[in-house]
Amino acid sequence: MKIGVSIDGVLRDLFNQIEETHKKYFPTEEDEEQIEIKDYNFEQWVSFPKEDVTQGQMEFNPNFTEDDFLESEQNTELSETIKQTTVDEFLYEKCTVEIFGYADEIVKSAVETLNQLILENPQHEFIIISREGGLAIPSTLFFLSKTKSICSNIKFVTEHSKVWDYVDVMITDHPKVANSVPKGGLVLLIDKDFNENIKQSGTRVKSIKEVDEMILDTFNEAINNGDSNSEWIL
Q: What is the pLDDT of residue 63?
């Protein structure tokens, strides 16, 4: 049985790291509340202040000389624009390593728990899967390195539904992953407030620490017997 493990919400505490990084670079005023992320719809929970940016405008001249530069300094026209950081810039350009690499585990020894599952269940293939791109990929590999992950099979996908190209079972908390489960697949859902209404689940656990050999054997039996479907409950 091929078992996929989402990084965020299962191994990595992404929400808290985004909150802490935002607080570091965008401190709030006394009468303002810190951001609080309640689900994966980051656009709803993360906002940034508008910033005034002053820029100098100079005409391009391929024959530019030092004298021209000194003269242009005096004649440069300054313009002011208002710039506002976007969520994608914050996550994937400006603070990528700090967010995806320096984050803590979602629960203590989450990665060590996965390591033990891999060692104790060699009959199953474990695959760490994350929907990421760009600089978030090496940052995530750094996170897995610092937490001493021994999982050698790591996949990065561009869409949440693509995880099912590689696995029979997904351990995840993400609604988009759970809601895209195909016929023949099963979800082992990490229970969160934002996914409480999802029905496409084989069973729910509080954390990866509750996943044991009995659960894996039950899932494996269901898949081998063709009993797996979105309504199957352990």
A: 58
Query: Within the chain, which residues score under 70 in pLDDT?
Result: 52-82, 200-202, 227-234
CA 54 from centroid of its chain's CA atoms: 34
End-to-end CA, the chain: 17
Count the Cβ atoms, other than its own, within 10 Å of residue 178. 21
Torsion sign over Cα 137, 175, 4, 214: positive
**SS3 assignment for the chain:** CEEEEECECCCECHHHHHHHHHHHHCCCCCCCCCCCCCCCCHHHHCCCCEEEEEEEECCCCCCCCHHHHHHHHHHCEEEEEEEECCHHHHHHHHCHHHHHHCCCECCCCHHHHHHHHHHHCCCCEEEEEEECCCCHHHHHHHHHHHCCCCCCCEEEECCHHHHHHCCCEEEECCHHHHHCCCCCCEEEEECCHHHCCCCCCCEEECCHHHCCHHHHHHHHHHHHCCCCCCCCCC
At 227 the pLDDT is 64
**Residues for the chain: how many in total?**
234
pLDDT digits (tens, 9 = 90+) for 17-46: 999 999 999 988 777 788 999 999 999 999
How high is the pLDDT of residue 79? 58
